[in-house]
Amino acid sequence: MEVGMLAVVVGAGGGIGGACARQLAEQYDIVLCVDRDLAAAERTVAEIASPSAQGADGVGPGAVALGADAADADFGVRVGAAAAEYGAVGCAVYAVAYEEHTPAVELSRESLLRSLTVGPVGAFEFFRGLTPAEDASYIAIGSLHETQPFANCLGYNAAHGALGQVVRTLAHEWADRGIRVNAVVPGWIATPGEEVFHGAEALKAAGELLPFGRQGRPEEIAAAVGFLASEAAGYISGSFLTVDGALSTSLARLRGL
Fold this sequence. Notes:
Elements: E1 6-10, H1 15-24, E2 30-35, H2 38-48, E3 62-67, H3 75-84, E4 89-94, H4 109-128, E5 132-141, H5 154-173, E6 180-186, H6 192-198, H7 200-207, H8 218-228, E7 240-243, H9 247-250
Parallel strand pairs: 1-2, 1-4, 2-3, 4-5, 5-6, 6-7
Helix pairs in contact: 1-8, 3-4, 4-5, 6-7
């Protein structure tokens, strides 16, 4: 059932992934919204298909939900097969990761392997399993943790370091296929998950200490994804677009100075 230009977003049930799916619904005919939490993916689909998202002709963008866990061995094959039912993929976004906050000496092997499996391994298998359209754009949601060794995040740091090399290597190897592979690197983004973890008041207080005086919004990450998916970014590949409100350039500040 080929319907035209297709975008696929893994992690579409989350704050950043959901925003990316809504952004791409404005640029593509249909968005396949993938999440291990099928109900969360379905909520994003409902938002895309809501009356407020419809055009003047009363026709809204199309979206479909798929439940799939990036930790499963057949993840890439399963998502690729589901996407193929709708045609070749014009844009693919990978917006999932596994993060555990614990001192490195206490980190379990299982936790480290899950970070690597859900992160760089899942991203690679996802991208490899797709049938790309001409001039396809593949985008991983990265992290400042790729280059910054934040304490108590060894698994997450290692996974994003490896994810960065997945992006670079695929951009190199797939350039002759016309596939662009890039990453968007968020700073601290105020997502529903962050609010649950920190609490609304603590999150707001922490945001006031950031260079811009606030956390970023998921829609600001999605806007960067939309740019990399567009024709305007047609000669950009192997790049890391940082959207962090100058946070990474402020990390050199020494404590107490």
